[in-house]
Each structure stands twice: as C-alpha cells, then as structure tokens.
Write a structure and sequence with these properties.
5-stranded antiparallel sheet; Helix Hairpins; 21 strands; single chain; 4 domains; Beta-Lactamase; 15 helices; elongated
C-alpha cells in the first residue's frame, strides 16, 4: 500500500527540488557556454598570433636565403661583400668558408674574439650542406646559433645566424604568469627558442622536450588546440603548433591552463552568487504565495471535513482562486446531492431490508458460532416460525454432520463456494431439506463473516425423480416392443415345431429321431428367449455404483434391442471405432439406456422424414484425454430454434402422442450431472457408402484420466 504524504510538504519539496535542479542546470549550461566561449576565444587568439609569428620567422629565413642567392649571382669582391653583409645584417654574426676538404678556408666576424677559437672549430661542429642546421652550441659562441649553408665557387659558405631577433620577437608574447608563450623546435625535437630557460638549462631540457611532441605535435594536426604537459615549467598548458616548411621547425604557442581555470572560477563564483540570490528571492516569493494558497486549502479541508461528518447544510465558502472556486462549486453540488442521497439511502435501506425478507432465497450472515442476520425466507425454508428464533443460535444447528467440515474449511482457509452446489440442511424438526447453496466471505461491521445463500430444491428433486421414472417407463415400453420383435420369430418356430409333431403323432408317422430333433430345436429356441430376458434384466438393473466400463461393449449391448427394428425398417447401421476397447468411468446401466434412447430417436427421425437413404452412423475415438461418441442419422435434422430447447424437460419434436419429451432431458442430465461429461446436438452433413447425407448429430464427450 502506498505511503500517505502531506500535500503541503510535497508541493514545497517539489518546488525546492525543481528550483534547485533548474538553477543547477542553468549554472552548468552557463559555465559550459563560458568555458566553450573561452576555449574558442583562446583557440582563435592563439591561431592568429601563431600565424603572425610564423610569417615573421619565414620573413627572417627568406632574408638569409635571399642574401645567399645574391652572393651566388654576384660573386665578385666577395671579401668586401661578406664584410658588408656582416655590417648591415644583425642576423648574421659570422661567415665561415670551407674548402672542398671541409677545412676552414676563411672566417669573417663582426668581432675578432671569434677568431681566437678558429683552431678549436672541428669539422664535425658544422657539417651542413645547402640547408638550415639544427641548433648549434659552438665553443667560440656563448649563445646557441643556427647555420645556413650554401655552395659558392666550389666552396661551402656557412652563415652563423643569431637567434636574438627571433627571441626578441617571441619575448613580446607573454602569458599572465609572465612566462613566454612560444617554443621553437628544430628537426631533432630540440629547443631552438625557449625564453623561459637560459642557455645552460636549454641544453639540459633538450632530451626531455619530446613530451611536447607526444602530447601535442605528433597527436594533432596544425592549429588544433590541445591540452599537454609542460615539462619545463611542470604545468599543464593549452596550446597548438605549426610547421616552418623550409626548415621543418615546429613553432608552438602555449598558455597555462590555470589562466582558463582562473577565468572559469571567477565566472562560476559570479554566476553562483547571482543565481543563489535569484533562487533565494524566488523561493521566498513562492513560499509567500504558497502560504496564501494553503491557507485557502486548509479552510477548504475544514469544510470538506464537515461534509464527511454529515454536515451537509453548511454552504461552502468561495476563495479568490478560480480553479478552487470551480472545485468548490462542484463539491457544493455534491453536498446537495449527498444530502438528497442520504435521505434516499435511508428509504432504500428500509426497502432493501424488506426486499431481503421477501425474497425466495434464504440468506444467513454468520460466523463460526452463531447466526447474526437471517431473512424470512431462510426461516421459512428451515421450518422456523420467524427469523428471530434462528438469530443468535449456532449455525451448526442446521448443518448435517457430513457438511460441518466443509463449513469449517471455508472459515479457516477463506474458501468461497462461488458456484451453487447441492447440499442438505436440517430443519427445525431435524428433517432434511435439499437446497442449492453458495457461501462466501464478507466484511460486516469490521468483522470477518460469511454469507450463505440457499434455495429450496426439494420439489425439484421430486420432479426429477418423477421424470426419471417416466423415462424408465418409456424405456420399458419401447423395450417391450423390441422384445416382442425378438420373441416373435422364436415363438413362431416353437409353435410350428410343436404343431407339426402333434400332427405327425396323430397320423402315427412321428419317429423317435424326428421327436428328438424337434424337442432339441424347441429347447434351443427357449434358451434364446431366456437369454433375451437375462439381457433385459441386466439392462434395467438399478446399479448406482460407478465403474470403469468399455464403451464399445456397452454400445453392442444396447444395439441388441434396437437392431430388429432397424432391420424391419431397412435402416442400415454402420459403426466406426478408432480402438477395439475404450474405457470410461461412469454408470453402465444409465449409459446403455441413453444410447438406446438416442438410437430410437434416430430411427424415428429417419422414418418421419421419409428419406430414401436410411442410415445411422456410430463413431468412437480418443483425442488426448477425451473420448468422443458421435451418432449421425440421415433424418434431415431439426430446426435451429428446436436445437436450443432440445434438452428441456417435456419438450419434443415428435407428435405428442408419440414423444414424451424426457429422453434427451434425461440423457443430458445423466451425462452432465452423473458422469461429468458433455453432450451436444447439431445438424450435420456426413458421407456413407459414397452417399452424401444430412441429419442430426449427437456428440457425447467424456474426460478420462
């Protein structure tokens, strides 16, 4: 059973929950939107700056390459040209010329200090051919450099390029924590530019700089914003990269994630304060408004309570809420209607009590010990002068011993007898009355009681007995007719034999052999007559004991009495049996009488219809746990309206002088009541001997275990 809750608390709880839920959703959506906006803004900003710096670096590279192209195209007075290049270009600090054997042939420098390290310049320090070098740490230079090498008059010229200009360019871009935003890597994944590290630390971190690649560069395309670990600063950054195509350098821009988190925290805090204030104001407003609503509802509840207490005269007061007023208006109508119905119910209750007392059906409300309420019909059926004699008395006073346990089981196990069943009850004078009764549990004044309803069927039982006797007499009459047909031929034989022997004796021509032969024939014929009498005796034997009998043999026994008539009227009887033996549980004698009556009816139907083809077909079969017997005749059937009434007592389709209307009623009664089977009748077409016939079909069904 569901738990009862307070409407007021439920509404307030729902309002608070939904308010908090929606404000939380709004806050989450807003934070997500701001985060997404900031993320997009950061991506756009970094991309624009990255493109700008990339253009500057490409311009720097193009300038160096254009100088080399100029020297190749104008190779006169190279010494003066080299010196002019050093004087006019801050980007180039030193120019070194190697011969074909990779030996230093000439060196040009802005200061003579570099010349002191000429002997220390190894061949392997600058081993570049017509390309840009990776980051170089030379003995004669305090800061790392990069080199650009090209061929000039069979000599190799190397420009040592200072990174100062690129550093100055990238230094202008800083994060809010004063760290540099840019990193530049060579082809070997070493730092070319990292303004957050000095020269010593730049070399130290070179081997670890691959984290930038595994987390960002090797994982994503260019200009894609991604989160990665900054191994130099020990922070987590957002960044993207691009490639300097001519040198295959990687230019990376970064921004500390703390900047974004700080921004989000500020936004979250501000929004949370705004939404909290808004939610608080909204809850205060809702609370104030709900108090007004619940004040009206409490008043409304009090008025309803008065109605539930039977105070229908007080008119309900209206509120200033349209919906409640509509509700109150409906309840006001209900109040007036309830007042009318209470008056009407009081009258109806009196009428109902009168109706219960005037019904033909006996009604007793009782518990285990006594009868609590009894109507007049129950008192009359049980032979009491009035119902008050029985009220307060024990219910078991009217229950025979064989039914007391059934009633106790109904009480103890909450069993209802929903379908009316036949019982015996004891009257006041201890005589038996037959009743059709049902019994079920009820709740009466918060007590667990039972109500028993019963109808006197003693007269119906007597009527059924009379009908069965009539059925017996009708069967006996028909049987005697059939016996007469059986006996006619044997009696004729005895008469002819005795008359012949008497005549031969008078003429003195009767020999001993002829006398013995005649007497043997008469003796054999009398045995046949005796056998017929025995079968008739067993056919009408009153046996009320159920037994397991063979349907096939029972059919054969019944056919003995009907076959002479069928033979006389040229009616062909055909049997089709699925099995040689078919056993069912029931009353053999009663079943044999039913078969005889059904076959006799089939014979009459064929004769009355005056059909040319006279057939009766008997079929038996077993399907699963059911046995079926079908009897078809070619008597053209009966009307549909007659089929609906065919099992009613005293209803017959024959001429009144011929049919009594009890054969099929008794067949139905015995099959359904005594043998727990079923019997149905319908018009049916069937085929025998390649002839299509039409008539009545009787189907008998038994369940077997």
């Amino acid at each position: 059973m569901f738990k009862v809750k307070s409407l007021k608390k439920s509404i307030i709880s729902v309002v608070i929950i939904f308010t908090l839920f929606f404000t939380s959703v709004i806050l989450a959506i807003t934070i997500f939107s701001f985060f997404n906006l900031k993320h997009q803004s950061m991506q756009h900003s970094q991309k624009e700056i990255l493109i700008h710096v990339k253009e500057q670096i490409n311009s720097f590279i193009n300038k160096i390459e254009n100088l080399s192209l100029y020297l190749v195209q104008n190779n006169t007075n190279l010494q003066i040209t080299f010196q002019n290049i050093l004087n006019t270009n801050d980007e180039i600090s030193t120019i070194i010329i190697f011969d074909n054997y990779n030996n230093v042939k000439q060196i040009y420098s802005k200061t003579d200090i570099y010349l002191n390290f000429l002997d220390d310049l190894s061949k392997n320090e600058i081993n570049i051919k017509n390309t840009w070098s990776d980051l170089l740490f030379l003995n004669f230079k305090k800061t790392p450099s990069i080199a650009y090498s090209f061929t000039l008059d069979k000599n190799r010229v190397v420009f040592l390029v200072s990174l100062k200009k690129i550093q100055e360019l990238t230094k202008t871009f800083k994060n809010s924590d004063n760290t540099s935003r840019f990193r530049l890597f060579d082809k070997n994944k070493r730092f070319i530019i990292n303004n957050d590290l000095d020269t010593q630390n730049l070399e130290k971190f070179d081997s670890k700089s691959k984290t930038y690649f595994t987390n960002l560069i090797e994982k994503n395309d260019e200009f894609v914003l991604e989160k990665f670990e900054n191994i130099c600063l020990g922070s987590v950054d957002y960044g993207m990269y691009t490639t300097i195509e001519k040198t295959s350098w990687k230019l990376l821009i970064r921004e500390n994630i703390n900047v974004l988190e700080s921004y989000i925290l500020k936004v979250v805090f501000t929004l949370s304060v705004i939404i909290f204030v808004f939610t608080l104001l909204m809850l205060l407003f809702i609370n104030k408004y709900l108090k007004k609503v619940f004040f009206r509802l409490n008043k409304f509840k009090l008025q309803f309570k008065n109605i539930s207490n039977g105070e229908y005269q007080n008119k309900l007061q209206y509120t200033d809420f349209y919906e409640l007023n509509s509700f109150i208006k409906s309840f006001d109508k209900m109040r007036l209607e309830l007042n009318k119905r209470e008056i009407s119910l009081t009258k109806n209750l009196d009428s109902f009590k009168h109706l219960v007392d005037s019904t033909m059906e006996g009604i007793i409300i009782h518990d285990k010990n006594e009868c609590i309420k009894v109507n007049n019909a129950a008192a009359n059926i049980l032979g009491f002068n009035n119902k008050y004699e029985l009220e307060g008395d024990s219910i078991f006073k009217i229950i025979p011993n064989k039914y007391k346990k059934i009633l106790e089981d109904c009480f103890n196990n909450d069993i209802d007898i929903d379908e009316p069943k036949e019982f015996k009850l004891l009257k006041k004078d201890n005589t038996i009355v037959y009743v059709l009764a049902k019994d079920q549990e009820i709740n009466f004044k918060d007590n667990k009681l039972r109500i028993s309803l019963f109808l006197d069927i003693t007269d119906l039982k007597e009527q059924n007995r009379i009908i069965m006797e009539q059925s017996k007499l009708s069967s006996i009459a028909q049987m005697l007719t059939n016996i007469a047909h059986h006996w006619r031929q044997p009696l004729s034989t005895i008469s002819v034999l005795s008359s012949g022997m008497k005549l031969e004796k008078e003429l003195d021509v009767l020999g001993d052999k002829e006398l013995v032969r005649g007497l043997d024939k008469i003796n054999k014929t009398t045995k046949e007559l005796s056998s017929i009498i025995d079968r008739c005796s067993s056919y009408f034997e009153l046996n009320k004991r159920q037994e397991n009998f063979d349907l096939i043999k029972s059919l054969d026994a019944s056919l003995v009495f009907i076959e002479p008539l069928l033979f006389k009227y040229e009616i062909k009887l055909i049997q089709k049996h699925q099995l040689k033996e078919l056993f069912v549980q029931g009353y053999l004698t009663e079943f044999s009488q039913i078969i005889f009556n059904l076959l006799d009816n089939a014979k009459d139907a064929i004769l009355n219809s005056k059909v040319k083809d006279k057939y009766i077909l008997i079929e038996t079969k077993k399907v699963d746990k059911k046995v079926f017997i079908k009897i078809n005749d070619s008597g053209l059937g009966i009307k549909k309206t007659e089929i609906e009434k065919i099992f009613e007592p005293y209803y017959t389709t024959k001429i009144k002088e011929v049919g009594a209307g009890i054969g099929l009623y008794m067949a139905h009664y015995i099959i359904t009541k005594h043998m727990k089977g079923n019997i149905k009748i319908k018009n049916n077409a069937f085929e025998v001997d390649d002839k299509k016939l039409y008539g009545l079909e009787v189907i008998i069904e038994f369940k077997i275990t």
